[in-house]
Amino acid sequence: MMTINNSITELVGNTPLLRLSRFRQQFELPAEILAKLEYFNPNHSVKDRIALSMIEEAERSGRLKPGDTIADSTSGNTGIGLAAIAAAKGYPFRVYLHDKLSEERFQILRALGAEVIPFSQIEGFTEVLEQSDGDFVAASRWLAENVINRQPNVFHTAQLENPANPAAHYRTTGPEIWQQTEGQVDIVIAAVGTGGTVTGIGRYLKQHNPSIQVIAVEPGPHSIPTADRPEQRELTGVHAFSEVLPERVPPTLDRSIVDEAFPVEHWQATAAAREVAVSDGILIGESAGGVLHAARAVALRPENHGKRIVVVLADSGLSYLSTGLFNHDITPGQLQVAALVSNQQIKNAS
């Protein structure tokens, strides 16, 4: 039967669930790990889901009109999803990005026709970032109030506050996991950026089975840049939420959904991403590596023997080739030592 799609908007979602058989065997894990491979979305990340949801909800409500420019600030994947969906629907797209993101992300966004504005080119924003001490919610709000929302004929998708973000996962990702496992799932693990993925999936699954455990991955203490450690290597797109002030948590994250916050360091995420590439032939990004590291640790807990763990692997490792994620000349152990030595030097200096 012939099946022809008319737009990439029809290709978002329905990503496969893969049993990580050799990863489980390699580490002798007593629990099963199933990977939701979000890089099967048309633009290779889970963010395609929220990009489509936010744009189409704005069209339905009349907030987005023909001729408008779509805009947002993003760590990369949401921007790529928005750029692609905007192009498919005929909207211009403007994106504000941190200068430290991988070169692949800048190239992909420009290839999709996006107007790319690095943070360093926004007057006054560098000082705001420095003063925020890692508060990306406050920095994003400053950017919205002082730049994006002052421009005419611009629709700001505002991914940190837009309810269409978690709604996308409540409508699609959660039901897919439930259907693909026939409801046989015990634990779900995902990383927190905006928190929409955890919130939407967790809300749907817990409504069907309240005993399902939702674990959210956040950066470990050595993977959070601060004013004292601005060069600290971080987990791309993953943000702390468990021990920060409520105003520093995106409204798109419902913390009541989360049963456990699991901290992961960047070198642990790096190791897991490299390991699963060799064991099961899947190339995943940095945050996905963090989720997989957490899943391995959770699978080894005695109370989880025989249980089924679903991990949401957010994107493809192809967007990280220039970052050193798969550079085997530098081992995860060396990355760990470098981070710990840097932290100790700062402590000694103070």
TrEMBL record:
EC number(s) given by UniProt: 2.5.1.47
Keyword Transferase found: yes
Catalytic activity: O-acetyl-L-serine + hydrogen sulfide = L-cysteine + acetate
Enzyme type, top EC level: transferase
Tryptophan synthase beta chain-like PALP domain boundaries: 8-315
Recorded GO MF terms: cysteine synthase activity
The protein's annotated pathway: Amino-acid biosynthesis; L-cysteine biosynthesis; L-cysteine from L-serine: step 2/2
Transmembrane segments: none
InterPro entries, alphabetized: Cys_Synth/Cystath_Beta-Synth, TrpB-like_PALP, TrpB-like_PALP_sf
Cofactor(s) the record lists: pyridoxal 5'-phosphate
Domain of life: Bacteria
Any matching Pfam family: PALP
Record key words, sorted: Amino-acid biosynthesis, Cysteine biosynthesis, Pyridoxal phosphate, Transferase
PANTHER family assigned to the protein according to its UniProt record, in alphabetical order: CYSTATHIONINE BETA-SYNTHASE
Family: Belongs to the cysteine synthase/cystathionine beta-synthase family.
Protein name (Swiss-Prot/TrEMBL): cysteine synthase
